[in-house]
Amino acid sequence: MPITTRRGARPHPARLASAAATALLVGLLSGTGSSAADTAPVATRTDLDYSCGLPDHNGVPSADLEARVRVATHLPGSGVAGKPIEAGDVGVEVSLPRAGAAGLFPSATTVESASTLAIEAVQGEERAQATWQSTAPGTAIPRTGDSLLLAHTGEVPTVTVNSSGTLRLLAGALTLTLTPDVGAPVSLSCAPAPGDPREVARVSVPESAEPSAPAGEPSAKPPAKKEGETGNVTVSPRSAEEPPPVQDEDCAHMPTGELDTSVGEPPPPYRHTVTDLEGIPMCAYAVGLSTVRKQNGSMIINDLAGKPALMHVRGVVRSEGGGWSSDPLDLDGYSQIWSLAELDLPDARSTFLSFGFVPVSAAVSFETSKITILTSQPHTIDPTTAVNYVAFRQSLRLHDVEVNGTPLDVGPSCRTEKSFRVVLNGNMFSKEYPYVNVFSGGLLTGKVDIPAFTGCGTGGENLNGLFTAAISGPGNEIRMNQAPTCLPGDFPVACPPALPELPSLKPSSSS
């Protein structure tokens, strides 16, 4: 099964912070860089067996679809310690059983696919995690034969090691987002077959040659290692810190609290059943943009170039089902799946041109309530009717304000006079980042009304009107991109949690 390397794949959306491009990795990896090798690239191809979980009626993955995955790289024959090593264009070809794939999209003729492959880079005792993302163009779903072949290609980050030794790249969890031309997208979480070799490539990093010395003088020796320095792995230079590695215990916390059930559809008049469940521990990163309509500007929320916060999720805490008809033979019904989450957002900083010419910079703190996440399917016989909502309440506090570079003391309690409701919608048909459910993640969008400000100013000075006039009002857009959720445990899925891309800002968002 040859892998075709395709140039000109759909570009990633523009990032407002260059560091976000490299924040996909923990440990060894950087975003871009020159090849570490002086030798020509060597093509590698590795075939692996995977087991993919299809979502059940609760949206929980269940392993029942076998896949064959071929990973192709173009790594150099050898690397140089301390310099980035490039894998070239990577190909991830996934072969799914035709019958199983066709069953997912009975009315579709073609399907587009995006893959996220977890890669573990290993040198000696040192390890680091990477994420290889790639896309496959529209592929015809065969009506005969054994397999559906999805040929993904994409550029991936580089790897840097600081000492000699063999660098091994091991394949881990694979996530596929399949978008058919007819029907709803489906997210598949795939795990390597137990006992199957997971190595997709290796690069030899030889010891550096010692510099020559004049005759009669001893050869120069490399500098001694400092105490406590391993010398094996370092992080390539970057403009911001990497978020710390996420451990299972970090993801095991499950929020408690009440769901905001007002965001859901009203229950049908017949056969309405509510089932409360313990829930599933999950976690994910989400990053986004918040637009202040009056200022025609935006600020980054949960900036990946800083120290992003992890969203904790108690997945599937309630399920609801029922039928729209009293006739038991009528198969049309409805289904709603509820999850509860919490996200303690870090401060954001933004600069606007107030009144069109005065630069005003301020830090913004967020107070966010528990988050309700709902996947609702009003008609179970038609999956295209499914909708997703994320709802919570939020307050804003301004501090560390500067006007034209001069600090403005607004006091410790300059905030919105009341909390405001945020309702975001996830569209499974989005061309940017389809949102099928909380497990697969994707783009969430919505608009909010920012209330008036109160408590702004010190020493008898009242600045409430200034900030109310500059910020408060309707039509302020929020665009959040949630990565797939990590499900920890003995057989983790999509762990450690990936870092999502910053969503693009549509030109119409400020109109």
Outline the structure in words.
- It is a single chain.
- This protein has 511 residues and is mainly beta.
- It is 4% helix and 46% strand.
- The chain has 3 helices and 26 strands.
- The strands form 3 sheets. Strands 2, 3, 4, 5, 6, 7, 9, 10 and 11 form a 9-stranded antiparallel beta sheet that branches.
- A hairpin with a 5-residue loop joins strand 2 (41-55) and strand 3 (61-76).
What attributes does this structure have?
511 residues, 26 strands, disordered C terminus, eight-stranded antiparallel beta barrel, 46% strand, disordered N terminus, nine-stranded antiparallel sheet, mainly beta, single chain
Write the layout of secondary structure elements.
Elements: E1 29-30, E2 41-55, E3 61-76, E4 89-97, H1 98-104, E5 110-123, E6 126-140, E7 147-155, E8 158-159, E9 165-180, E10 186-192, E11 199-205, H2 248-251, E12 270-276, E13 280-292, E14 297-301, E15 310-323, E16 333-342, E17 348-354, E18 358-368, E19 371-377, E20 387-403, E21 406-408, E22 414-416, E23 420-426, E24 442-450, E25 453-454, H3 464-471, E26 473-482
Antiparallel strand pairs: 1-8, 2-3, 2-10, 3-4, 4-7, 5-6, 5-9, 9-10, 9-11, 12-15, 13-14, 13-15, 13-26, 15-16, 16-19, 17-18, 18-20, 19-20, 20-21, 20-22, 20-23, 22-25, 23-24, 24-26
